[in-house]
Amino acid sequence: MKLNIKDKFNTLLPADPILGDSRRQVEQACFSYVTPKPTAKPELLHVAPEMLNTLGLSEADVKSDAFLNVITGNAVLEGTKPYAMCYGGHQFGNWAGQLGDGRAINLCEVEHNAKNWALQLKGAGETPYSRSADGLAVLRSSVREYLCSEAMYHLGVPTTRALSLALSGDEVLRDMLYDGNAAYEKGAIVCRVAASFLRFGNYQIFAARQDTATLKTLVDYTINQHFSHLGTPSKATYIAFMKTVSERTLDMIVHWQRVGFVHGVMNTDNMSILGLTIDYGPYGWLEGYDEGWTPNTTDRQHKRYRYGNQPNMGLWNLLQLANALYPLVEEAEPLEAILNAYKTDFDRASLHMKRSKLGLELEVAEDSALIAELEAVLQLIETDMTLFFRTLSAFNPEESTDGLATVQNAFYNPEALKATVKIAWENWFKAYAARLKKETATFEERQQRMCAVNPKYVLRNYMAQRAIDAAEQGDSSLIDELFQMLKKPYDEQPEYEKWYAKRPDWARHKVGCSMLSCSS
Ligand code: AMP
Ligand code: MG
After folding, report:
1. Whose CA is nearest to atom 13 of ligand 1?
2. Would you say 26 and 98 are in contact if contact means Cβ atoms under 8 Å apart?
3. 203 and 215 in contact (C-beta within 8 Å)?
4. CA 255, 457, 45, 112 torsion: positive or negative?
5. What distance in angstroms lies between residue 492's CA and the mean position of ligand 2's atoms?
6. At what angle do helices 310-329 and 235-259 cross, to 10 degrees?
7. Which residues of 29-47 are buried (b: 16+ CB within 10 A; e: fewer)?
8. Each residue of 80-117: pLDDT tens digit?
9. For residue range 375-405, what is the model confidence (pLDDT) as tens digits?
10. Which of 99, 120, 173 is the best mutation target for the ligand 1 pocket, counting ligand atoms within 8 Å of the beta carbon and taking the most?
């Protein structure tokens, strides 16, 4: 296995002088050297062929022992020095101090086709940042991260990627629902890949400690390595950096809203500085369209990270990043201007995105009202978001004005579609049909455009759970089936039609399907 190793993070930034994984506060350093933990019986479950190519590897490499050993932490590549990053973060609105890579170990950086990629193992053992936990990950959460990050990529959502999914052969103790019923689960390791795994929290930790020197070192490094188009680091560049991060975060969240993805834990340590979706934990996909929905049971009370609140939480997190960068800028006004722009830019981008979901190309003033009315009727009775928008693309008022018949399959209980609810829907379709008359595109053109932004296949929570249940029994074929299908989420793929369906009733209240916890 030959990788073109080009380590930068751990060669250009200050290291923690202490070695080993003893828990400690790490100051004036961006990372600590660590060694992945050998595992009992590593076994490869799946590998992503595109990522192999991206990194300059081949299928033949996958067959080597070296590959399996490296992606499970049983061997360290020659010339590399694995490390865990130091970061802090706001968790559920409260400053939590130092967090850091507690169960992630960065292996190395690889340059291929003029791009730089960081490789990171999730679940490869303890680090100085593991606090009271074990640094390990279980099969269920690893399958979820592996499948979802690749699915998001193919949906066109900025995200970290995944190279491989492997069993460690070790048993890991988890209290999945935090109810005192801990049980052993299969341990697993995902090797994930991104241009960088830096988070807002990496900057916050130095600002919180008033360590402006290390903060500046890290920000300058980030700009030089990942935002070099902004120019040489200076006060103006720091402001441009903040602006770019804000724009990328906005773009990412607009995509989340488009596809119905709910991250579940938008803490500042889970916000990528590159605007990538990162740290797939108790995330979920909207089934019934419900702006108040969160998959995360830990957040059930306040629903801070509910679907409809993700745009606001993006802004809240950006405010924390702006606070962290303030010591380098020493002027509030330009940072405030960026945050204010987020609000108006978000509304504009969101309106554009929602128009596209409805197949509307022209900008008509009444569209905001039409969309707001749709969002209200969508929540009158349980209506599947993915099915609704996909079937809506087949609505052709030239042929039939019965929109309800077109989208009927999206209703979980069509019986409930009576009286006032039915009238509300009929009114909405009347308005929509009238609005479509203003468009110049043909029905076929519109349908094609709508199908390019409204996916047919998403990783519904129960689908991931079925793949997990089978994998627990030693059958990883469903992981592969979903992996293949999710590569083309906008294509019809009739061979996978059975996955183009509402959530089955058994999954409504099942753990892992509708209820997820941070325990992974
Ligand atoms: P999360 O909210 O899941 O992204 O995790 C928050 C913090 O807890 C991060 O610093 C993680 O590295 C750490 N963490 C979560 N699970 C574990 C674990 N099993 N072992 C060690 N650290 C963990
Ligand atoms: Mg995290």
Report:
1. 102
2. yes
3. yes
4. negative
5. 35
6. 170
7. bbbbbbbbbebeebebbbb
8. 999 999 999 999 999 999 999 999 999 999 999 999 99
9. 999 999 999 999 999 999 999 999 988 999 9
10. 99
